[in-house]
């Protein structure tokens, strides 16, 4: 039996077809510090050059055996294109992610430029995707894209308190604002799919039940996520971090091909609720497992637990923080291949 290429492995998993072993891939940033060091550049430089961005993603996949690449590395690309600016911390020698310096102060100020996909770093991101897509034609890796969900995107461009406090008092204005954010997410997602990315992850990461009640999630979050997933082609993932046990069934109604959850989710119980036909990705703590932990054996134990609990792909609960010991990243990939040889609930294995 011929070994699958990484791209074949990832795409078959999304179709719930048998694979040779579980791929290790993610719909969130995966940029180890060892790659930045080898390139001889500062972390801040990664975010402003298509060449650096594509090269760093390629090197990450090749150095550690990831089955996918995924870009960009920061959450500010679209807020910047919407006119909110960008703090790149380009003089810093350490790892500081870009931030949004200015937010709209009222809902009345919100104005979405019709050409936002041509503003800021958006054309540069397109060039980076094109380079990765061209490099992936031999199947060496799948190319992943990600976007913030409408609610989380809203929190990047307007104060979240304003949004939450206004949800009842100014319901029509809040609904209209979230519709605008939904249209932005759809436009960007359809654009990246038109470029040829292999899968897309929608990260509605600010909407767990740590922040919103299940009732609020159903009325404020779910309708816009359904609209997003109806507008996008497969494969598509819905990722929500934080507490998701009480909304996992509503998440599954949104139309994604797979659900990604973090370490706060009880995957055993989620599997019982959703059955074996739903793709579940997760659910380890990336910072505690790969950064503060110094024992690769703990990484292996964590991966095994995720698989034993019933995930179909071992995904981190958030971005991989770059400053990870090399031995931990190697243990992560090797452990997924070691324990991922057995079938997962939704995906069989080639005989």
CATH architecture: Alpha-Beta Barrel
Please write the string of helix (H) and strand (E) elements.
HHHEHHEHHHEHEHEHEHHEH
Amount of beta strand: 5-15%
Output the CATH topology: TIM Barrel
Main beta sheet strand tally, sense and closure: 7 strands, parallel
Query: How helical, in percent, are the residues?
Result: 40-55%
Structural class: alpha/beta
**Strand order in the sheet with the most strands:** 1-2-3-4-5-6-7
Ends distance: 8 Å
Question: Oligomer, anyone?
Answer: single chain
For the record, what CATH class applies?
Alpha Beta
What is the alpha-carbon Rg in Å?
Answer: 19 Å
Q: What is the typical, i.e. mean, pLDDT?
A: 96
Please give the domain count: 1
Total strand segments: 7
Question: Based on CA inertia axes, which overall geometry fits?
Answer: globular
């Amino acid at each position: 039996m011929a070994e699958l290429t990484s791209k074949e492995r990832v795409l078959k998993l999304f179709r719930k077809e048998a694979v040779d072993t579980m791929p290790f891939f993610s719909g969130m940033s995966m940029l180890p510090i060892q790659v930045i060091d080898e390139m001889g550049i500062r972390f801040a430089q990664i975010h402003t050059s298509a060449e650096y961005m594509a090269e760093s993603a390629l090197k990450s996949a090749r150095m550690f055996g990831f089955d996918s690449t995924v870009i960009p590395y920061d959450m500010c690309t679209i807020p910047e294109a919407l006119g909110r600016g960008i703090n790149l911390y380009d003089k810093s020698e350490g790892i500081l992610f870009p931030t949004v310096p200015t937010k709209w102060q009222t809902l009345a100020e919100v104005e979405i430029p019709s050409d936002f996909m041509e503003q800021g770093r958006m054309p540069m991101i397109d060039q980076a995707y094109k380079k990765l897509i061209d490099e992936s034609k031999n199947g060496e890796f799948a190319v992943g894209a990600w976007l913030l969900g409408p609610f989380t995107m809203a929190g990047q461009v307007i104060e979240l308190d304003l949004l939450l406090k206004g949800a009842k008092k100014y319901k029509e204005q809040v609904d209209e604002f979230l519709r605008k954010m939904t249209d932005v997410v759809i436009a960007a997602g359809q654009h990246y799919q038109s470029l040829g990315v292999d899968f897309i992850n929608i990260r509605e990461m600010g909407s767990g039940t740590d922040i919103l009640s299940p009732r609020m999630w159903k009325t404020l979050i779910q309708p816009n996520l359904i609209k997003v997933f109806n507008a996008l082609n497969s494969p598509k993932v819905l990722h929500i971090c934080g507490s998701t046990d009480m909304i996992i069934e509503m998440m599954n109604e949104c139309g994604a091909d797979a659900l990604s959850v973090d370490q706060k989710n009880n995957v055993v119980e989620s599997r019982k609720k959703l059955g074996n036909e739903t793709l579940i990705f997760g659910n380890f703590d990336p910072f505690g497992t790969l950064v503060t932990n110094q024992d690769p054996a703990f990484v292996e134990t964590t991966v095994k637990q995720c698989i034993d609990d019933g995930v179909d792909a071992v995904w981190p609960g958030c971005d991989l923080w770059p400053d990870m010991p090399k031995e931990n990243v190697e243990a992560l990939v090797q452990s997924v291949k070691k324990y991922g040889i057995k079938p997962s609930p939704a995906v069989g294995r080639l005989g």
